[in-house]
Design brief:
By secondary structure, the chain is an all-alpha fold. The chain has one domain: Leucine-rich Repeat Variant. It contains 9 helices and no strands. InterPro entries: ARM-type_fold (IPR016024).
Amino acid sequence: MYKELDNLLSADTTVDSWYDDGCTIAGEILLEFSLSDWDELSNQVLSKSIEWQRKIAYCLDNQCNEHELNILMSLLNTDDEELFATCIDTLRSYTSQESKRMILGSPEILQRINDLLPGASAPVRKILQDFLSKVHS
C-alpha cells in the first residue's frame, strides 16, 4: 500500500484535483496501511519533496493514530512555512490527552508558532491560534 500512496503523492496534479480527489484517495489508502507500510512511510517521508510532504501532512488525520502523529511531528522540523502550517492545521484534529502531551512535550513547536504568529496571514494566524487553544484545553 505504501507504494500506491507514494505513486499518488508523486503524481503531477493540479491543486484542485489534489484537494477534490487526491486527498480522499490518499486517506482511503492510509486506512489500509499495515504496520510495515507505516514503517516504510516513516522511514521515507523526510527524503521526499516538500510538495509530497505537504500532501501527506494534509492527509494524516484519518485515524489520528500514533503512526500519523509521529510522522506529523517529524515533519514539523522544516524550514518550509507552508508545510509547518499544514502540519499544525492537521494536528488540530489530535485531541486525545496523549496527543496533547506529546505535542506539549516539544516546546520548540510552541515557540515556533509564537514566533510565526505576528507575521502570519489572517488564515494562518487563525489556524495557529486555534491549535494553541486546542492543545492547551
